[in-house]
Please model this.
Amino acid sequence: MFAKDRDLYVLEPGLHKDVAWIGQRRISTIGSLTGTALTITSGSFVDAQVSAGHVVIFDGMVLEVVSVEGDTQATVSLMRGDVSSGAVPGVSASNRVTIVYDYSPQRAMVHRQVMTMLGFDVDEDGFDESVVTNPDGLARLEALGALHLIYAGAGAPGRSGEKFAQRAQMYRERFASERERVVAMVDLDGDGIAEAKRRPNAFVLTRG
Model:
């Protein structure tokens, strides 16, 4: 997938406050933060398949996972504008609630749709996402699509659905606008050099 959960939080910093119940809770434990080093008292980052790009909610503070060093150790950072920059330490604290929500099902659904929009059938063509040589250029598109699906799912009647439905529509419109702007550079012969440019074609984003 081109987008990570941290890309969703860049666009929607309060995602967990709105719709945490839509996400999968991978970790819920007590942790301590010293600079950029996060240590949890129970559970396992490895077993929970937490990796770089996931987001940790530490005592209400949003931190992106930079790397996982072991079952109970991870390097985290305040949200960065550029993931290639160094980790930015948060406020150190001990024995605080530490939760990792995951939105990979929604991201995966949009990723498949984006690949289809670019003309690739991952089941029949044998191409995977590595064919795209500028994956960062498509991360925002996928993130917008995932946020649309998340808020559309939360927009069911009976749970303040109208508010979430409006937000879903907003992200649907932003997805459509981004689709018009983005260009994918594709390497069809596997030599590592892009030979073609492709724009996502007309496609209706729906919940499946």
